Amino acid sequence: MQRIEGFGLARVIDSDDTNYKPGDIVSGIIGWEEYSLLRSSDNLQLRNIQLDDDIPLSYHLGLLGMAGFTAYAGFNEICCPKKGDSVFVSAACGAVGQLVGQLAKLHGCYVVGSAGSKQKVEILKNELGYDEAFNYKEEADLDTALKRYFPEGIDIYFDNVGGSMLDAALLNMKVRGRIALCGMVSLQSLSTSSQGIKNLYSAIYKRLRLEGFLQSDYLHIFPQFLENVKRYYKEGKIVYVEDISEGLDLAPAALVGLFSGKNIGKQVVRVAKE
Amino acid sequence: MQRIEGFGLARVIDSDDTNYKPGDIVSGIIGWEEYSLLRSSDNLQLRNIQLDDDIPLSYHLGLLGMAGFTAYAGFNEICCPKKGDSVFVSAACGAVGQLVGQLAKLHGCYVVGSAGSKQKVEILKNELGYDEAFNYKEEADLDTALKRYFPEGIDIYFDNVGGSMLDAALLNMKVRGRIALCGMVSLQSLSTSSQGIKNLYSAIYKRLRLEGFLQSDYLHIFPQFLENVKRYYKEGKIVYVEDISEGLDLAPAALVGLFSGKNIGKQVVRVAKE
């Protein structure tokens, strides 16, 4: 039987690696199971968690974990944000998107997000500080929707979905716009029968840069990320929305739910209480 | 009647701009006509040509003109070439592509070009110094063709065509590869009924950068370009292939021929003898 893994938190029971002592909490790639055998040599992102009374432990999975760091590294290192830039984020209420938008606001940008339900749009505008948000499922034409929110065009598009949203964004980028390619979870992107991206030609005359990235290439700035984002959180400058499923039995449904957008915020599965 | 313009050379007959004197040769955006009225204020790239006995005048249209400068700026400023890089160039025998490949060879790269006829493939290998070249019209599958020439992948793709060649290149890029988006003349790129680019998702896990550019953004390095490329030519390190049509009457056919690849090398229309 195939062992399924994911980014998780675990308490060390026993260890022969002196960097990890019994009682420590670690994050890393961990099996979907109650007890895991982890090899630090194979688990390049295994790290000790510094517990902090002011921060929920689960935030080390999302806000302070791989998702949050993806947002931080992608926005700061790929998007070259400047004060006043117009920023568009897709899957804006997701584990990554919600931090991208809040970082963009802290940079003094105008920020619009798209999501797949009315409830998520409300969260984006009322809790996460997005200037505007829209439900892409209610839009007959994504190009028209983007022109409504960005009449002068988009400087930065943080793309979590690919497909027709990326195609519409290409039509609405400003000259020298930047597109961070972070994820392409849309069904169109994953299907071989999809129609593909048709507007890439606009990258030439608009001198656009599209760049794919993985957070694992930026681990040298992880300490800086942790320090800054913890501070923003403690100062009340950012918030984080989680969707917690209780028990390992719900893990498969929680995973499948990601593809239909059932989760609201970072999907967490709690296998055991602290 | 619409006036048609293109990048051309002309001799000044009369001028009230003191930068241009009767007898000077200028290059810039010029009408398809025997006599043109040019306004230097509207013609941002109008410039005086320094004649040189060792260099054919027509080379200031291609090798030392907008096409050559597109190759130079795109390759040096967008592609970040390093010695030993594997470089792929499409439309490699064209006005831009032929210089890209030769610059890449001067950088110590391995260079492969694609073109649309057996004759062009021979020119690429025997005259322009490409390591390998292939006729894309003879390939059943472009992905297979690229894997044959780049078993370890492509570092730099200088894209002059877009469409299915770009899609195949995306599948064959190395991690941190760079794609300069220079032109998309393929029929697939221009047709709204095309199938679009389906492999852009690979830009995420391979951390690719795709960047569109226009030579006009790099005019500050034009003097450096002119100095370097003139020197390479005089030292015999680069050559340039032109396809000259005689007389303005042939201009429409010469233009249309570009889209079927009828020209071999830079297409020039000679309106008048020097």
Verbal overview:
2 copies of one chain form a homodimer. Chain A folds into 2 domains: about 5-65 and about 240-270, Medium-chain alcohol dehydrogenases, catalytic domain (Quinone Oxidoreductase, Chain A, domain 1), CATH 3.90.180.10; about 65-215, NAD(P)-binding Rossmann-like Domain (Rossmann fold), CATH 3.40.50.720. In chain A, about 30% of the residues lie in helices and about 20% in strands. The first copy, chain A, has helices at about 65-80, 95-105, 120-125, 140-150, 165-170, 185-190, 200-205, 220-235, 250-260, and strands at about 5-10, 25-30, 45-50, 85-90, 110-115, 130-135, 155-160, 175-180, 210, 240-245, 265-270. In chain A, helix 1 (about 65-80) packs across helix 2 (about 95-105) and helix 4 packs across helix 5 (about 165-170). The interface between A and B is medium-sized, with 31 and 30 residues. Strand 9 of chain A pairs antiparallel with strand 9 (about 210) of chain B.
Keywords:
alpha/beta, six-stranded parallel beta sheet, 274 residues, Quinone Oxidoreductase, Chain A, domain 1, Rossmann fold, homodimer, three-stranded antiparallel beta sheet
